[in-house]
Write a structure and sequence with these properties.
The chain has about 200 residues and is an alpha/beta fold. The protein has one domain: Vaccinia Virus protein VP39 (Rossmann fold, 3-Layer(aba) Sandwich), CATH 3.40.50. Helix content is about 40%, strand content about 20%. The protein has a seven-stranded mixed beta sheet with strand order 4-3-5-6-8-7-9, covered by helices on one side. It is globular and about 35 Å long. The two termini are about 25 Å apart. The model has no long low-confidence stretch (mean pLDDT about 85).
C-alpha cells in the first residue's frame, strides 16, 4: 500500500506540476530547458548504468531513485560546474562517481571531514536521513549565494514531505524546484522568492 500511495502521489505531482512553458523565472526556465529536459543520449550514461548494475540488483530503481535521475544528476554537475561538492552521506559511491565524471577537478568533501573553512558549491543529502530544515540550518556556514542543495526522497514519507514544505519558508531560501524524487534549493539574493513543481 505504501508503494501504491507513493506512486499515486507521483501521478498527482505530474498532473499538477508545470513544464518549462509554465515557468516565468528566466533562471529556472533555462535550467529546465537546457538541463532537466535534455533527453539526448550521452556515452557517459552507459558508464553510469554499468556501475549501477554492479552495485544494485534492482535495475529499475536504485536507492529509491529512478535511473533517469542519476543521469540528471550528471547533467546538473556539468551545468553548475562546482569546485567543491559536499556529500552528507558517503554510502552511495555511484553518486561520487557521477560527480567526478562530470567535473574532473572537483573537490569532494565528506560530511565527517567538513570544517568551517569549506564553502560548498553543491550539497547532496537524503531527506530520509536528514531533516531538510535542520540540515540547511546546520550547513549555513558552508552555503554561499550560488550554492545549490539537492535533497533526494523529499516525498518518500510524511516527515520528509512536511520538512520540505517548512524549508520553503526559510527566509534565505529564494527558489525551490520540486521534481518529486528530488528537490533543489537556491539562495541567490537577487531572485524573487518562488517555489516550483516541475514535471519530469
Amino acid at each position: 500500500m505504501y508503494n501504491i500511495r507513493y506512486g499515486l502521489n507521483y501521478l498527482r505531482h505530474r498532473f499538477e506540476a508545470n513544464n518549462r512553458h509554465g515557468i516565468h523565472s528566466p533562471f529556472v526556465y533555462k535550467l529546465i530547458d537546457t538541463v532537466i529536459y535534455d533527453y539526448g543520449d550521452q556515452k557517459v550514461y552507459r558508464e553510469i548504468e554499468k556501475n549501477l548494475r554492479k552495485q544494485h540488483p534492482d535495475k529499475s530503481v536504485i536507492n529509491t531513485l529512478p535511473l533517469k535521475f542519476y543521469r540528471l544528476l550528471y547533467r546538473f554537475a556539468v551545468y553548475f560546474n562546482p569546485n567543491q561538492v559536499l556529500f552528507a552521506d558517503d554510502e552511495d559511491h555511484i553518486i561520487q562517481f557521477i560527480i567526478n565524471r562530470a567535473v574532473s577537478e572537483v573537490q569532494v568533501i565528506k560530511q565527517g571531514s567538513f570544517g568551517n573553512s569549506y564553502r560548498a558549491d553543491m550539497i547532496l543529502a537524503d531527506a530520509l536521513k536528514h531533516n531538510t530544515v535542520d540540515y540547511i540550518e546546520k550547513m549555513r556556514p558552508a552555503i554561499h549565494d550560488d550554492t545549490v542543495v539537492i535533497f533526494t526522497n523529499i516525498h518518500r514519507n510524511a516527515p520528509a514531505k512536511q520538512a520540505w514544505e517548512r524549508l520553503k519558508l526559510i527566509q534565505q531560501v529564494k527558489v525551490t524546484i520540486d521534481l518529486y524524487f528530488i528537490g533543489m534549493v537556491f539562495f541567490k539574493p537577487g531572485m524573487s522568492k518562488q517555489d516550483f513543481r516541475v514535471r519530469y
